[in-house]
Amino acid sequence: MINIVLPVDFGEKTDQLIEGAVKFAKQVNGKINLIHVAPTDIGFAIGDMGYQYFPEVEENEIREELVQLNKLQQRVLAHDIDCEHLLKQGIAKDIILEYAKTKHADFIVMGSHGRSGIYDVFVGSLTKGLTKSSPVPVLVLPIHD
Fold it and tell me: How high is the pLDDT of residue 55?
């Protein structure tokens, strides 16, 4: 079975990315390994007293993101594609590459923005960083309006 790592950010194009990844997984008899990387500064706020940390804000945000990740997993499973997921906090590129290694990934699937001819805007800085650093192929799906 082909292992596909699919990073998701819950943005407005996530549905299109899921559809493309499911189509690809069906073509190659693949398993989708969803991953969402949350930033490490979720619970921090700047106010009159400087930086403050609110653990309850971070906990609520992580809980909500896990619910969203579970829903995406169920959508993939509904297409008879094997799927699991992981939510971690940290630096997205590093966490995704670590997860791909752990899962013995054959592909990392990312989405393009399709907004401009400028490479950084077209592909995105995370996708660009992954394509430069990944030991496995990075499949970039065109995601358009």
Answer: 62
